Amino acid sequence: MLKRTRSLVCLCVSAALVAPSISANSIELPDIGTTASSTLTIDQELIYGDAYMRMLRSSQPIVNDPVLNEYVSNLGHRLVANADDVKTPFTFFMIRDRNINAFAFFGGYIALHSGLFLHAQSESELASVVAHEIAHVTQRHLARSMEDQARRSPATLAALAGSLLLAIASPQAGMAAITATTAGSMQGTINYTRSNEKEADRFGIATLAKAGFEPKAMPRFFGRLADEYRYASTPPPMLLTHPLPEDRITDSRARAQNYPEPRVQPSLDYNLARARIVARYAGIQAKAAQDWFERTEQKADPSIKVAFQYGKALVHLDNNELEEADKILRELLSRDRNNHFYLDAMSDLYIAQKKPELAQSMLEKAMAATPNNAVITINYANVLIKREKNEEAIRVLQRYTHDYSNDVNGWHLLSEANIHLGRSDEDLAARAEILALKANWNKAIQYYTQASQLAELGSLKQARYDARIDQLMVQRERFLALQ
Known about the structure:
Residues 1-26 form the signal peptide. By secondary structure, this protein is an all-alpha fold. The chain is built from 24 helices and three strands. The protein has three domains: 2-256, no CATH class; 268-354; 423-483, Methane Monooxygenase Hydroxylase, Chain G, domain 1, CATH 1.20.58. Helices cover 67% and strands 3% of the residues. The chain has a three-stranded mixed β-sheet with strand order 1-3-2.
């Protein structure tokens, strides 16, 4: 489904990530169209973005890892805070896929493949990819591309919108519709996206510099990718959607040289996230992961060597080698007691050791230091359930799902806690929310209807369920109206 979605999304986000060599401080852009107001409003883009995201949740291996989500979100919002023309909220998420790729779509959604972490050698290199995708959103390139096609073919915009939803019910038919819609204007699209890529490069490098990252990281990362896969018969998806001819890389290098070169220290958080991905999301055997940590640690900067110890601890933990994991994690926590990567792993270790009371005590101290933090709160709720404190867990999770309603982790745990207490109606309601996040509207409404039937007639709980049914029906109709 991701490839099908990208076929639509990447009408505007395909080509290279570099730009002409002009003064870095005077971004004079080509005339590539209007602000897209005649095609889609910002509110409409948000509706489309929400639809895309629900499609992806239902079809792709979204990484629902609280620690990695926090890292990616923090990195993304650091860049957004230094970007120009921000008009929408931003959501950053990961897809478990070893292929190197990233893409942006309506409503400020930016997806990163986990494979990016395996090839980016520094946080600045990863940030260069994110900054480029942010620029695609802030400059509204997808809406502009659709506007450009609509100007040349009045039926294009409506056909593209219909194809998007058709792809949900019938992937092959949806893909055929998208292809038929765009084939007649492909050359115009190619010319248009080249301009979009130039603009995204310019704004991306500027954002990198303002956010304190290395501007040269963008041409360095993509230049290395181009060299590595120059003669590959099957290049990674990023090079298919973001081709890298040499002149663009050269121009990018020239542009980056116009910015001061900051002294950027190796990022511990980036290397902890990278180690977590190698240990849990790279699809490699435990021995191969341990060997990678050993080799990489030997040549790493001393300030980040602990990240590879952390990775080794995760491999031990996941293979039930609890004594080895315990030794490493205790040492790491003694150095940095509020580190969320370490706290999350130690919480899992205590549970595996059948000592959830120690995890609860540890996490309560962490909550005092960082109240309402998503990583700490979701771990705390999980520990409460393991201790059979389900009532308390439900109170925590009710707040959590209110604050983080798009996080399926909270709804899964809320379902689990209610099952333990025999509350079938609340279990059904929690599972309905997960279904709604995946655009399975009919099943979600069915579950809420069953929950309402189980609730006491005329009770506030039944009224809450019925009100939610009405909301879901409105969301379903809005979703289907995109056709």
